[in-house]
Design brief:
The chain is mainly α and 235 residues long. The protein contains eight helices and three strands.
Length: 235
């Protein structure tokens, strides 16, 4: 039985490793769930029997909020929304941080595997937002950016909810996959503190507003092949 438990532990680690592709993650999770059904094991039983808990490599990464890592001496509201949205989506905690050279930055805290995706995603959305907003003139540009960030947060929230529903539907009665994620988030909050958030209601409607939402709809959240290198502290 110990061999079975060790195999399940390894499969769960593979299933929750964002460095693998979605197909590999799904196969690993299904194999783990099949073994857990066959042997009537859930996450709590697994950890109690083996004395092993899922180990996370807690770390942090700092990303400038200026376009293409240029210095920015203030905290843009739209970047705050974007940071928290990315943090929720990637299971990381997001907060503002100061840097002596790049000044205003977004700091992500969490497991190293999740930080890898958070760093790539935030930089991609940051630079895409700046680039797309250049087509909007004057006072509408900031409206564009806020609308862009808020719509992206909505999309990421929806995708996250769909992931949770899929986990509940695909796993055993013990809710294995979802339990792993929830346990990770609890441990993350214990390590770094809970995520602080605030709600932004969209009360504006203009060309900038509609163009910002349209730009957000074009975003693809999948990393291209070869983009999974470890995040650098500043980039």
């Amino acid at each position: 039985m110990s061999d079975v438990r060790d195999k399940i532990t390894k499969l769960l680690a593979m299933a929750n490793d964002s460095r693998g592709n979605e197909h590999e993650n799904e196969i690993a999770m299904r194999m783990a769930e099949r073994l857990m059904r066959q042997h009537n094991i859930d996450v709590a039983d697994l950890e109690a029997a083996t004395g092993k808990q899922t180990q996370y490599d807690w770390s942090s990464v700092i990303i400038p909020v200026g376009e293409k890592a240029k210095a920015c001496n203030w905290n843009p509201i739209w970047m705050g929304f974007l940071g928290v949205g990315v943090g929720r989506f990637t299971d990381c905690r997001a907060s503002w941080a100061a840097h002596p050279v790049y000044q205003s930055c977004m700091k992500f805290e969490g497991d190293a595997v999740d930080l890898e995706y958070a760093a790539w995603l935030f930089k991609m959305l940051r630079d895409h937002g700046y680039s797309e907003s250049k087509s909007v003139a004057g006072r509408h540009r900031e409206t564009f950016r806020k609308s862009y960030a808020i719509r992206l947060c909505e999309r990421m929230t929806q995708l996250r909810a769909e992931r949770d529903v899929a986990m509940k539907a695909a796993v055993t009665k013990t809710g294995t996959a979802l339990m792993v994620v929830q346990n990770k988030l609890a441990l993350r909050d214990k390590e770094f503190g809970k995520q602080r958030t605030r709600t932004q209601k969209q009360k504006f409607s203009s060309d900038g507003f509609h163009q910002g939402r349209a730009a957000a709809e074009k975003v693809n959240f999948n990393r291209p092949i070869g983009s999974s290198s470890q995040p650098r502290q500043i980039s």
